[in-house]
From TrEMBL:
Mannosylglycerate hydrolase MGH1-like glycoside hydrolase domain segment(s): 237-543
SUPFAM superfamilies associated with the record: Six-hairpin glycosidases
Entry-linked Pfam families: MGH1-like_GH
InterPro entries for the chain: 6-hairpin_glycosidase_sf (IPR008928), 6hp_glycosidase-like_sf (IPR012341), Glycoside_hydrolase_63 (IPR004888), MGH1-like_GH (IPR054491)
Superkingdom of this protein's organism: Bacteria
Family indicated by similarity: Belongs to the glycosyl hydrolase 63 family.
Record's protein name: Glycogen debranching enzyme
Keywords of the record: Glycosidase, Hydrolase
Length: 558
């Protein structure tokens, strides 16, 4: 694949290093994604010099190698690879590579020994060791009382390594450059073979999706105890709850331990109240927003993908953790005689959907449906685990929530929401989120289901799939985040619900539209429902994972 690093950063499985190009300035930076997307990520601006003069350069990037060469002169170049998770290797030939820092006042560079320097980057609590294996390394970093004024690193004709660590580096032997390139190529080819579904029509999308999922993983560090698949290494470099579930589903068949880790990260950081974090990274955990409970839904599907997930201890862990999540919604998100509520649109994952335009808190039918589905699944897990009384109890709780859902949030026109402590009816009904009760279609009367599905086709289906706001709605907004654009996880939930409830033809049509959409918009965070253009973050893992899941579904049918 010819990788456009302004759209998809160059990185590798397990690494916090990445290299990307800014669209506006066209500057190229070596970056580091420790600390999440609120932390500064730029380490060094890259320039190439010839005879001391900055020269324009071209970029050729593949999944495993990034090459910068003088414009129309491929014989003089810099090549970068990441053969190990914390090692960026640089080969310089016939040019001078200049790295200019993006430092703050306490950042400090010191010489450790001949040809080796250490750069302490204070805001990231990170150290870099820069080693000259061959060639010439030169540093200009004038000291000014509490730190270097600036850091200017030059590399000439040779092999250099930039290695990151938190406290101290360990002595090690570095692989020759060509051996490192061979190693990372072999690792990636194995991943690609497991992600590729063999439908050549979607080859370009398969290449993008496979690479984005592989290269967006970071290794255990700080509070992260397992390898974690970030949403992106472009802008959204955290792991968010409910995003993680779609990535886990895609990993379940060939990488069950990695899939399980995506769930375990959140179960291990579950608050005493029962709430999962909104997002985590290696340094920070946030409980600002609490996403809908879909871990049980995810795990039930994983059990069908791989027997690894049928292990009783793992089922028990998910079971007990989900019980705490559901108790959290009962105790802390439910007013008397009402349904559980969202405190912010971000809780739902549909941050700015029109349902939330009247205020908070909101009783939403999607949240009630996720809870009902979770109780139904927990009842099945309880049977597996021999918890007969709890199985009955969970089934009864699902029944009572369903009765309340239909009493409070459904009328002859369909589903709606309620706002505020008094539960005032929300008249805005143009968001796709109000159609998510389709996920409990097995509980709905066929007349209600038929009306829901007909409404999807009439108001939300476009040439590329399901818009998140009715395209004729006054709230519809071009590039409006959840006010129109198509999102992968929502598409997956609707396709799954349609196919499971007797609407396979429609589900398959939406599936095929989404698969075709990726040929236009790539693996973006979301897509324009009219043009198919990829929007916002253009290197998103849950989009990639959903694409691969849907492609697998199509491959099995074909």
């Amino acid at each position: 694949m010819n990788l456009d690093i302004s759209e998809i950063p160059f990185s590798r499985f397990g690494s916090y290093f990445c290299i990307s190009k800014e669209k506006d300035s066209e500057n190229v930076y070596i970056r580091d994604v420790h600390g999440g997307d609120e932390a500064p990520s730029k380490l060094f601006k890259i320039t190439l010099l010839k005879d001391g003069i900055e020269k324009p350069f071209d970029i050729v990037a593949t999944e495993t190698s990034l090459k910068l060469f003088l414009h129309e002169d491929e014989e003089h170049y810099v090549e970068m690879i990441i053969p190990e998770e914390d090692e960026l290797h640089i080969e310089v030939k016939g040019v001078e590579l200049r790295l200019r820092d993006k430092k703050v006042k306490y950042d400090t560079l010191i010489e450790l020994e001949d040809g080796i320097v250490e750069y302490h980057i204070y805001p990231k609590e990170l150290k870099l060791k820069i080693t000259e294996l061959t060639g010439e390394l030169s540093i200009n970093a004038p000291w000014n009382i509490i730190g270097n004024d600036f850091v200017d690193i030059r590399m000439n004709d040779g092999h250099f390594v930039v290695e990151s660590y938190r406290v101290v580096s360990q002595k090690k032997e570095y692989k020759p450059f060509h051996k490192g390139r061979e190693k990372v190529e072999q690792e990636y080819q194995q991943w690609f073979a497991n992600m590729s579904k063999g439908i050549q029509t979607y080859r370009s999308s398969i290449e993008r999706a496979a690479y984005i999922t592989w290269s967006s993983v970071v290794h255990p560090h700080g509070i992260l105890q397992d390898h974690a698949m970030y949403m992106s290494k472009l802008w959204m470099y955290n792991i968010w709850s409910w995003d993680n579930c779609f990535n886990a589903l895609n990993l379940g068949e060939h990488y069950p331990e990695l899939a399980y880790s995506q769930l375990k990260i959140f179960m291990g950081m579950q608050d005493a109240s029962g709430a999962y974090p909104d997002f985590v990274n290696d340094k920070f955990v946030s409980y600002n927003c609490i996403k809908p409970p879909i871990f049980a839904y995810t795990y039930e599907k994983l059990m069908k993908k791989n027997d690894y997930f049928k292990n009783e201890k793992r089922v028990r862990l998910v079971y007990e953790s989900t019980k705490k999540v559901l108790k959290y919604f009962d105790l802390y998100r439910t007013y008397p005689r009402k349904l559980p509520h969202y405190k912010h649109g971000n809780d739902s994952g549909w941050d700015n959907a029109s349902l939330f335009h009247k205020g908070m808190p909101v009783e939403a039918p999607d949240l009630a449906s996720f809870l009902i589905r979770s109780y139904d699944i927990l009842s099945k897990f309880a049977e597996i685990l021999g918890e007969k009384e709890e199985a009955t109890s969970f089934k009864e709780r699902a029944d009572s929530l369903f009765t309340l859902l239909m009493e409070r949030l459904h009328d002859e026109e369909g589903f709606f929401g309620r706002v505020g402590r008094e539960g005032e009816k929300i008249e805005i009904r143009t968001s796709l989120i109000l159609r998510l009760p389709l996920i409990i279609g097995y509980r709905l009367d066929r007349s209600i289901l038929d009306k829901l599905v007909a409404n999807l086709e009439d108001e939300f289906e476009t040439n590329y799939g399901l818009a998140t706001e009715g395209v004729k709605s006054k709230y519809y907004k071009e590039n409006g985040y959840w006010l129109g654009p198509i999102w992968a996880p929502v598409t997956y939930l609707f396709i799954d619900a349609l196919r499971n409830n007797g609407y396979q033809e429609i589900g398959d049509r939406i599936r095929d539209k989404f698969l075709n959409l990726t040929l236009i918009g790539g693996m973006a965070e979301n897509f324009d429902p009219i043009t198919g253009k990829g929007l916002v973050d253009t290197s998103f893992t849950w989009t990639s994972s959903v694409f691969l899941l849907l492609l697998e579904n199509k491959s099995m049918e074909d």
